[in-house]
Amino acid sequence: MTDTHSGVMKYVPGFIFCIILGWLALQWDQSIHKWQKDNQESEKILKPYLNEGKPLLPFDEYVAKSEEKYKEKLSAFEHGDIKEKPKKPHLLQKIHYETIASTKEIPFKFRFGERMIQFQLTYVAVLLLGGMLLRNTIGLPKFILPGTVIARPVIKPGIVLLGGYYLWSNLLKVGIFALLLVLIFIVGTTVLVSIIGRRMKQDDGLMGVMAAGTGICGVSAAVAVAPVVNAKPRDFFYAVGTILLFGTVALFTFPYIGKALGMSEPVFGAWVGTAILNTAQLVAAATWYGHDSLLTANIINIVRVGFIPLVVIYCIWFYVIRQAKTEGRHQKINTWQVVKEKFPLFILGFFAMVTLNEFGVFTEDHRTIFGKQFLQIFFAVGFAGVGLNIAFDDLKKAGGKAFVIGFLAATLKAVLAAVVVILIGSEAFRVK
Amino acid sequence: MAEIREFEDKAKKVFSAERKEDIWVLILAAITVILGLTGVITPKTFPSLFF
Q: Which residues of chain A are modeled with pLDDT < 70?
């Protein structure tokens, strides 16, 4: 009893630490978004003064005029003259409006918020970069570490809740392309790495975890496959090191590469869903890019993790059954047992949410609560765990020929996937 | 056959942690959905957590 108690208690400090970091990052995110909106509103207010020298309206008139404009647009929407429902105007607070009216300048914090959003320094970036810096400079006390590890899967309830945003028609439309991408790139990489590894006479244990890890789902797949291919602890760390190193590089560069290539949010979502190896890292990169990107990446990820049992079956066949056959032994595989044990259960929660939404259980408010607000809470705690667990020492464990094979395969997959998703285009991957 | 059983046992042990994790994930998501549907959490709850 005491052991169980202390077993649970060791996770508490680190987990609370992740909650605090998550809250601080969300507070930052709320502030910069508000300042950005204030900046855009300030520019709008100052425009007539700067362009035509017109005086600024008194605050009460500014509020009345904005509300009048909103009512006009709302009425046009209700009469079907405009398609999109107008959003409520974002009004400046009286104190800020009067400051701008007297100085004719936009306050520094508003411009700062705009700049932070331009550099995409949202809560995702703050948690990942900040967590990584903290872990690798000051370091973390030992009693914090276990809790930060269990904070990472807190991303998953967010993925389940996001299901409330989809209809089955969305899922099937994007799902067909997701299935194609998964089959071509993800299963293709797994098969390619295992064959090249065998040709280059690399150890089966090492190449088995590397093939599963670089192909399908990062660390989860490596964990699932390791016992099957009899991987040694050293092999496992080599493979996980390679997967984490690739994921870390991808996480911090892909959003900027996506912007540079002019990728739309759905295309970027499809790209990271295919190319980034680890659920937490791909969800982070997609969230970093935008909500539409996350909606697409999530479908690809759901299809992908659903393939874990198949990859395990492939690895059993490639490394155990086939090997036994060449040695003149006969071994069978219990397919149903593998599927039952390896199928990621949380996917069922996601599908349940899609079904509830299909039946009209969720209102627009519910979708906002689940798919935007509480999603951010779960993601923030999870991303804090992800950032704090990027340890350069772990990344250094990647090495040797196996690292070269794994890293090159993952890079090749990313480049080819980028070309394919750009060619397929936004509409195929757009969820709504 | 014994070898396969051994592999399966090992796989089961390693993966049971992930299975438990998934069950917690589902419980947490279900609690959030119930709180949302019963109106305990509203769209105003999230902004109220911040300054």
A: 1-6, 215-224, 226-237, 323, 329-333, 338, 341-342, 395-400
Q: What are phi and psi of A39, to 5 degrees?
A: -65, -45
Torsion of CA A268, A274, A280, A284, to 10 degrees: -10
Of B15, B23, B36, Cβ closest to residue A370: B36
In Å, how far is B30's CA from the nearest CA of chain A?
8
Distance (Å, rounded) from C-alpha A379 to C-alpha A384? Answer: 8
- Positions of chain B with pLDDT lower than 70, given as ranges: 1-18
Residue B40 touches partner A, C-beta closer than 8 Å = no
Residue indicated by tokens 């904005």 = A66
**Given A26, A226, A345, which is nearest B23 (Cβ)?**
A345
Q: Residue A2's pLDDT is what?
A: 45
pLDDT of residue B5: 54
Contact of A213 with A277, CB cutoff 8 Å? yes
**Contact: B18, A344; criterion CB under 8 Å:** yes
pTM: 0.79
A278: phi > 0 → left, psi -120 to 50 → alpha, else beta; which? beta
CB-closest option in A30, A157, A377 to B25: A157
Report the gap between the CA of A208 and the closest CA in chain B (Å).
Answer: 14
- ipTM for the assembly: 0.78
Of A92, A110, A105, nearest to A31 (Cα)?
Answer: A110
Per 3-state DSSP, chain B is made up of helix, strand and coil in percentages (nearest 5) of 80, 0, 20
CA A241 to chain centre: 20
The pair of structure tokens assigned to A111 is 């411009």
Query: End-to-end alpha-carbon separation of chain B, Å?
Result: 62
